[in-house]
Amino acid sequence: MIDNFRIYMYTPPISFAFTTPSESLFYTHLLNISSNPFFTQNPNEANLFFIPFPPDLSPRKISRLVRDLRVNSPFWNRSLGADHFYLSRGGIGFASDRNILELKKNAVQISCFPATPGNFIPHKDITLPPLTTSNHPREPLNNKTSSPTFLGFTKKLGQSSFIKELEGDPEFLIVDVDDDASEFDLGEIIASSKFCLFLYGTGGDVSWLGEALRLGCVPVLISDRPIQDLPLMDVLKWSEIAVFVGTSGGGIGELKGLLGGIGGERYDRMRGLGVTAAQHFVWNDSPQPFDAFHMVMYQLWLRRHVIRYARREEWV
After folding, report:
1. pTM to 2 decimals?
2. Across 232-246, average pLDDT
3. End-to-end CA distance of the chain
4. 3-state SS track over the chain
5. How far apart are CA 81 and CA 296, in angstroms?
6. CA dist 301 to 3, 80, 220, 228, Å?
7. pLDDT for 268 beyond 70
8. Tell me: the pLDDT tens digits for 86-143?
9. How far apart are CA 209 and CA 206, in angstroms?
């Protein structure tokens, strides 16, 4: 991939910066020519084209940006934007404007996880692995020295009937995100739990997904709909490292029965694969093989084969 995958970046309309950590790091690594082996200044060598624009750019200006590419660049028209990609935290919604519609339907969108509902197209779009802000050691916990203290752990973020039901069960530990517990203590709690529960799509905090994997806590993703925007969907077999649970059914009793039935070799395999997968969630100051930046680039590399149309003058 490193030897034959090249990206050309259009000149940004203005100087700008991204506000979220994962977006900022990804964009910084793309701009750093000295450490980015995928960058090329020759568009004829490029497999994909990056369209940089500020995160707060209005739909009208985005439309104008795409229109200018259509008029002034031969590369957009040959694939209708299918070999282009852009970075947008919440993603771009569908619109009647032709330029935005082509950008949305054809170009690869890279957004933050979780993606805004309705703004993610699973067969082509990508989400960035969330940045772990933990300060405790990064060595993988390959073996837990004792049995987990809790069946499940989750962070409390707001109020929900599900959280209230969990709080009444001694097998689950709920920690308020506003507590003064140190990062080290939080890491100890995660490592001492068999499962880590994530409320997807209900305002829950999913930013510590990679940290849960690294500390050997098997993620349980609880959602009322299919989850199609998980990070690294082309890299990881999520069904082998996480448990997926719907919100309808028998409530906490059914959840405990499901989790209690995952043990022995099956649990050890899930936890071990999760610890191994955690390396792909690491954002390094300088990109390293198999880290988050390279895994996103790998997903882009998988999308490099697109149909390109001949220009009209080439038809004769």
Report:
1. 0.88
2. 94
3. 35
4. CCCCCCEEECCCCCCCCCCCHHHHHHHHHHHCHHHCCCECCCHHHCCEEEECCCCCCCHHHHHHHHHHHHHHCHHHHHHCCCCEEEECCCCCCCCCCHHHHHHHHHCEEEEECCCCCCCCCCCCCEEECCCCCCCCCCCCCCCCCCCCCEEEEEEECCCCHHHHHHHCCCCEEEEECCCCCCHHHHHHHHHCEEEEEEECCCCCCCCCHHHHHHCCCEEEEEECCCCCCCCCCCCCCHHHCCEEEECCCCHHHHHHHHHHCCCHHHHHHHHHHHHHHHHHHCCCCCCCCCCHHHHHHHHHHHCCCCCCCCCHHHCC
5. 19
6. 11, 18, 30, 20
7. yes
8. 999 999 988 889 999 999 999 999 999 998 888 999 999 999 999 875 554 444 444 5
9. 6
Tokens read off for 38: 């995928």
Cβ contacts of 163 within 8 Å, gap of 6 or more = 154, 156, 174, 199
